[in-house]
Specification:
binds magnesium ion; Hypothetical protein af1432; alpha+beta; single chain; 3 domains; disordered N terminus; two-stranded antiparallel sheet; Beta Polymerase, domain 2; binds adenosine-5'-triphosphate
Length: about 475
């Protein structure tokens, strides 16, 4: 929630639908000064703007960085726009290192003291015949034209220290109200580029904003067009949405938008679990787990998908009691195919499905079990699993979860102890190696692996000390068996 005290740029978010006031006066002058204080352009950005201005062009910081500054947040990056054409930019920056990859769309990347800044010529986007990108772009000399092509009012503001804030669509007022509103006619804007539907709900999740009514209606009207958008672009927005502080609420409200590109979640909706351990249906439980897990992309993905195997594995006893035998492995399989379709990188996909597959493990309060879990999953995945289990417990029927969260935390401490004590839980920690076995006369081949595996199991189980002599002794016995 933004307040006027902490954010001179915006006033408290309270009244969706209000519009900006229009009578300039002393109060507005004061307001402009406050905004100038609010948006502190980094020195390099000031320099880039000054260089363009000195060459006779206009230049502004624009989009996300202006929005974030007005919210008192640190911008991810600083994008600039200018009245200079790409050719003019190239000659203005001919003493700088530049990257020309986006040049036909008007974007030049300028490297200033090792930092990259995108500077884009003011432009008007042409027709969007494919619902993804404009067929052609036209350069323009008016900043307002450039702002008009941007998606939401809060993203359609520009700023420099000489002109102040340029806000032709009431972005500042919508920031103050916590409102997402399309620039222009919503259905037309979502038809041009249907990724904006996902951008809208990801900003709703990141900023905890509501969507203005006609924008929300148009999102659903245009939803069938989403299938034309490249999965990579969808995935990027989905990840940002999942990591937003308001992700659960947005997923609750807009589950049909998500189900449009992940229809596998639909059977979870409203599915009564029919047992006393749960007070929520499967989807609602999932949303609670998501809310309780840290905002890390892999953890949020694991939470989102962790019970996706429940609908297809559900069985109900004669006493009307629901079971979900094997839902973890089934869920890992479904998640694998969804994440492949959305082209997640292998590391993310494999970590997420390993954790979902493992969420049946019941942690036992012994170092031995900690070693076993470390051997099975490795530390990073085990820590993920611990987070998932914690969030899962917090989202179940509190009448049955007494002490479980404490047990999970105690198990986490045991994992710490095993690691701190450099205890052995993997082949590389074992006090003997394949080389030692060969020196003891075992020929190179599968026998070496077999023996090392047994030794490791025995060390993990605490049946053998991880000491060279003891291990070499038992090799003799193992060879005979
Ligand atoms: P983030 O903080 O995630 O970077 P952002 O708003 O800066 O958010 P970007 O994707 O970096 O998002 O885009 C920069 C700006 O370009 C946006 O603020 C918006 O003005 C404009 N923009 C980006 N994508 C679109 C789009 N699909 N349609 C219209 N305008 C867009
Ligand atoms: Mg950005």
């Amino acid at each position: 929630m933004v307040t006027s005290k902490s954010n001179p740029g915006v006033t408290a978010k309270s009244n969706p639908g209000v519009t900006a006031k229009s009578n300039p006066g002393d109060a507005d002058k004061q307001h402009i000064q406050e905004i100038t204080l609010m948006i502190r352009l980094p020195v390099k950005v000031k320099n880039l703007i000054s260089i363009l201005q000195a060459a006779g062009f206009e230049a502004f910081a624009v989009g996300g960085c202006v929005r974030d500054s007005l919210l008192g947040r640190e911008p991810n990056d600083w994008d600039l726009c200018t009245s200079a054409t790409p050719d003019e930019m190239e000659s203005v920056f001919n003493n700088f290192r530049v990257i020309e990859t986006g040049l036909q769309h008007g974007t030049l990347t300028v490297l200033m003291d090792g930092e990259a800044f995108e500077i884009t010529t003011y432009r008007i986007d042409g027709e969007y015949s494919d619902g993804r990108r404009p067929d052609e772009v036209t350069f323009t000399s008016k900043i307002e034209d450039d702002l008009a092509r941007r998606d939401f009012t809060i993203n359609a503001m520009a700023y420099n220290d000489t002109a102040g804030l340029v806000d032709p669509f009431g972005g500042q007022s919508d920031l103050a109200c916590g409102l997402l509103r399309c620039v222009g006619e919503p259905a037309q804007r979502f038809t041009e580029d249907s990724l904006r539907i996902l951008r809208c709900i990801r900003f709703a999740s990141q900023l905890d904003y509501v969507t203005e009514n006609s924008t929300a209606d148009a999102m659903y009207e245009c939803l069938p067009l989403l299938k034309r958008v490249a999965v990579e672009r969808i995935r990027t927005e989905f990840d940002k949405l999942l990591c937003g502080p308001a992700a659960s609420g947005v997923l609750r409200e807009h589950r049909e938008i998500i189900a449009d590109f992940i229809p596998e979640i639909r059977p979870m909706f409203d599915l009564d679990q029919k047992n006393d351990y749960h007070i929520y249906d499967v989807w609602e439980h999932t949303l609670h787990v998501l809310q309780h897990i840290p905002a890390d992309p892999k953890l949020r993905l694991a939470a989102f998908f962790h019970d996706i195997g429940k609908p297809s594995t559900m069985t109900v006893t004669d006493e009307d009691w629901g079971h979900f035998y094997g839902h973890e492995a089934t869920g890992a399989g479904i998640t694998n195919s969804v994440m492949r379709r959305l082209k997640y990188d292998n590391e993310t996909r494999e970590d997420v499905i390993a954790v979902i597959d493992a969420h049946k493990i019941v942690f036992q309060q012994t170092q031995r079990h900690a070693r076993r879990c470390l051997a099975k999953l490795g530390e990073p995945r085990l820590r993920m699993l611990i987070e998932l289990e914690l969030a899962d417990v917090k989202s179940q029927n509190p009448a049955f979860t007494g002490g479980r969260a404490e047990n999970i935390l105690a198990f986490n401490d045991l994992v710490d102890e095993v690691l701190a004590g450099q205890q052995c839980f993997s082949m590389k920690d074992l006090a003997v190696s394949g080389r030692d076995l060969m020196d003891a006369g075992i020929p190179q081949g599968p026998e070496i692996g077999r023996i090392l595996k047994i030794l490791l199991e025995q060390v993990i189980e605490g049946k053998l000390p991880n000491e060279r002599q003891a291990l070499m002794e038992s090799i003799k016995i193992l060879r005979q068996s």
